[in-house]
Each structure stands twice: as structure tokens, then as C-alpha cells.
Design a protein that fits this description.
This protein is α/β, with parallel strands linked by helices. It folds into two domains: about 5-145 and about 270-390, 3-Layer(aba) Sandwich (Rossmann fold); about 155-260, no CATH class. It is about 25% helix and about 25% strand. It is built from eleven helices and 18 strands. The strands form four sheets. Strands 15-4-5-3-2-16-17-1-18 form a nine-stranded mixed beta sheet, with helices on both faces. The chain has a four-stranded antiparallel beta sheet with strand order 7-8-13-12, with no helix packed on it. Helix 3 (about 50-70) packs parallel to helix 4 (about 85-95), helix 8 crosses helix 9 (about 330-340) and helix 9 packs parallel to helix 11. The model is unreliable at about 40-45 (pLDDT under 50). The structure holds S-adenosylmethionine.
Length: about 400
């Protein structure tokens, strides 16, 4: 058995963060945190401005310390709600640099909306995920996923059972035309009976030029050499257009394109900046997940699906860090993701020994601090999912 997937350190993250590289021997690739919001006891002041200022003052040195342990290619994701989103955005711009801002994702964690409680009169159903690279130019983050590719979008099937769809070989973007992309405007030859396409004439072939639906000249998306290289991925067909029937050329776009060495590649799609509860889970699913491993011992955990989607943007051997670990969702997600894709991610979770409330489910279950909750969940995850668990103690 190799190194454990999950590590836990109890303590104030401000003390622990500078020691993380020493503990794990390498820089961190991915930070995910869900800091205490400005609505709980710790930072709720009567004077709002003082509250925001106190929250920012608490966060600034911690975000700076996190930046110090991040690899040059690393990235950080921070969950935040409307109370602090604006302040956090400015603070992140300061600490990580505006040029390294990648996205402010809307996460629909409460699809029904919060119907109870005071507030603005709106049923808030989302929060945010602020995403910054340590250095946008060299980040390893790939903001795409294979999970949202819908096989139903590939309705055709080849004789050997591979799904595909037809995409026009013509570039449908009007910005590209014979003036702006001269070398992509040329004649090809195709036979709508056999489907064959070539850059030179052949028996039975018709001459085909790229044109827009209204008949104005267009350009192809593929160069001549690419067409010569991949004739089997092209097909000539008769189509009905605005100006009647014509002959056109289409690309066979495969659901599982063949990557290098003849193995099927994984098709990836850019992540949108709105993440739905049905895709990543909701606060309700998160509570149920925690209940399954430990009981209802923490008020607002995040769903593992949210963290797993974040993990999917980084290489599968990433060193992950959550220094506001709470119930240990990040470590749980890392174990689930490794188990699902064979990855070798490791996760360092940090949480302080903040006492649990007297009379709460946690306290009644013998969990006296939030750190007790974190380690109990990570231990349970190691048993049910695997990957091991180790607690590191600071000297
Ligand atoms: C919003 S919760 C995180 C919840 C977590 N994402 C989950 O899914 O369970 C924030 C956590 O940060 C912890 N915390 C607050 N200040 C801290 C500090 N200075 N050092 C370490 N942990 C801290 C709190 O104990 C709390 O558990």
C-alpha cells in the first residue's frame, strides 16, 4: 500500500499552512476551501462594515499563506455566499492578482431556495465558487469535463457500432470567410452516392465549394492536408437548404474520438459557469452523504459532487489541500474520485479544535470539537472507500 490518500492536521490553519510543504514534501496543486461565512457567531457583528472588515482581516493572511504553498501550476477554489462574495473577490484580486482570476461560478446548492428565515425576501438558491490560478499562464487547470457530454447528441452509428454526428465541414462562423481565411477557401470533390470526399477529382465526383446557406462564399474548417489525411472522417451528402437541394461535405464527429495509439480518447466539454444541483449535488444531498458515514453531526457540509467536479479540472495525481475542512467533504471526495478513476490524489485536511455546541448531535455522539468530526469522517471513509488515513501531529 502506498501513501495514504487522506491526511489530517488539527490546528489553526494560520499556524499549520506554512508547515504543509514540510509535512508532505511537495507544493500543493489544488486548494479548495469553504471558509466560515460572515453569518455565524464568529464574525457576525451588529455593524456590518466592521463585520466585513474583520472577516477580510481573518482571511487575508490565510489566503497569502495558501498562495505560498501552491505550486506555480496550481489553482484555488473558494466557496462563498452573497455576504462576502464582493469582499472576497477584491481580496483574491489583491492576493492572487486580477490577471489570475479564472471564474466566479454560480453553484445552485439549494434548488428550492431558502424559504424560511429573514432576509431580502428572495429565496436564495445559489452561492459562488471563486476560482484563481496561482499563475494563469502556466496553470495545469483544465476547465473541462467529460461528464456533461451527452451521448444523445451523437445520434448516428457506424457499421462497427461507434456513435457519431455530422458537423458541417464548412466554417459556420461568418468571421471566417475567403477574405479573412484565404487558404481555407478551395474546391473539394465528393460523391453523394458513396459519400467519398477528396481534394482531387475522381470518377463520379462533383465539385463542391464552401458556401453559406444564402449562397455567399464561405471557407472550410479543415485544411487541404488534413482532408487528405482523414478522408474516412468526412462524408459527402445531399442536403436540402434554403436555396433547394445541394451537395455538401460533413465531418463525422465521434463520441469517443480515437486518440494516440489507437485508444479511444475521452471527449471533454468546457465547464459552464453555472453548476446545477442535479449535476453536483445540493446541501440536502450533502447532509445525507454525511449521515451515511457519520450521522447528522454538521450543519452545512458541501456535497462531494461539487468537490469531485473541481478535482476533475486538475491532474489525477494532484495534491489537494482544504484548510477549513469542517466535516471532511474534500477528503471524502478525493477518496471517491481516486476509487472511481484510479487516480493517486492525496488530500491534506486542516481544521481547528473548535468546540461543538453543547446539546448538538455532534456533542451527543462524543465529538467534542469540529476536528473530531473531520477525523471521524476521514477514518470512516478510509474504511468504506479505501486509500488509508493518517493524522499528522505538529511538534
Ligand atoms: C463552513 S465550514 C467548512 C465545511 C466543509 N466544507 C464541509 O463540507 O464540511 C468552515 C470550517 O472552518 C473551521 N475553521 C474556522 N476557522 C478556522 C481556523 N482558523 N483554522 C482551521 N479551521 C478553522 C470551522 O471549524 C469550520 O469547520
Amino acid at each position: 500500500m502506498g501513501q495514504p490518500w487522506n491526511l489530517f492536521v488539527e490546528g489553526d490553519n494560520l499556524d499549520v499552512l506554512p508547515r504543509v510543504p514540510g509535512l508532505v514534501g511537495r507544493p500543493v496543486d489544488l486548494v479548495y476551501i469553504d471558509p466560515p461565512y460572515n453569518t455565524g457567531n464568529d464574525f457576525a457583528y451588529h455593524d456590518d462594515f466592521r463585520g466585513h472588515a474583520a472577516w477580510v482581516a481573518m482571511m487575508r493572511p490565510r489566503l497569502e499563506a495558501a498562495r505560498e504553498v501552491l505550486a506555480e501550476t496550481g489553482a484555488i477554489f473558494v466557496s462563498i455566499d452573497d455576504h462576502e462574495a464582493a469582499h472576497l473577490r477584491l481580496l483574491m484580486d489583491e492576493v492572487y492578482g486580477e490577471q489570475n482570476f479564472l471564474a466566479q461560478v454560480v453553484v445552485n446548492l439549494n434548488p428550492k431556495g431558502r424559504q424560511l428565515g429573514r432576509g431580502s425576501g428572495f429565496a436564495t438558491s445559489h452561492e459562488y465558487l471563486l476560482t484563481y490560478a496561482r499563475d494563469a499562464a502556466s496553470t495545469a487547470l483544465n476547465a473541462s469535463t467529460s461528464e456533461t457530454v451527452d451521448p444523445a447528441d451523437f445520434p448516428l452509428e457506424s457499421a462497427d457500432g461507434h456513435r457519431y454526428r455530422h458537423l458541417p465541414l464548412r466554417n459556420t462562423n461568418k468571421k471566417f470567410n475567403p477574405v479573412t481565411a484565404r487558404t481555407l477557401h478551395f474546391t473539394v470533390w465528393g460523391d453523394p452516392e458513396t459519400g467519398r470526399v477528396a481534394t482531387v477529382p475522381f470518377e463520379g465526383a462533383l465539385e463542391i465549394g464552401p458556401v453559406f446557406g444564402d449562397g455567399t462564399p464561405a471557407v472550410w474548417r479543415w485544411s487541404r492536408p488534413l482532408i487528405d489525411q482523414r478522408p474516412d472522417d468526412l462524408v459527402c451528402r445531399r442536403v436540402k437548404g434554403r436555396l433547394g437541394e445541394r451537395v455538401d461535405v460533413f465531418q463525422k464527429d465521434w463520441l469517443h474520438p480515437i486518440a494516440s495509439a489507437g485508444t479511444p480518447g475521452v471527449r471533454r466539454k468546457k465547464l459552464r459557469t453555472i453548476w446545477l444541483a442535479e449535476e453536483v449535488g445540493s446541501t440536502d444531498t450533502a447532509v445525507a452523504e454525511l449521515k451515511d458515514v457519520l450521522g447528522h453531526v454538521f450543519e452545512s457540509p458541501k456535497p462531494t459532487g461539487l468537490v469531485r467536479r473541481i478535482l476533475g479540472t486538475m491532474p489525477d495525481d494532484a495534491l489537494v489541500l482544504d484548510f477549513f475542512a469542517g466535516s471532511g467533504t474534500t477528503g471524502h471526495a478525493v477518496a471517491l474520485q481516486n476509487a472511481a478513476d484510479g487516480g493517486t490524489r492525496r488530500c491534506v485536511s486542516i481544521n481547528s479544535a473548535e468546540p461543538t455546541r453543547a446539546g448538538s448531535n455532534a456533542r451527543n455522539a462524543g465529538l467534542h470539537t469540529v476536528a473530531d468530526i473531520t477525523r471521524a469522517r476521514l477514518r470512516a471513509v478510509a474504511e468504506s472507500v479505501g486509500g488509508g488515513f493518517e493524522e499528522l501531529r505538529l511538534p
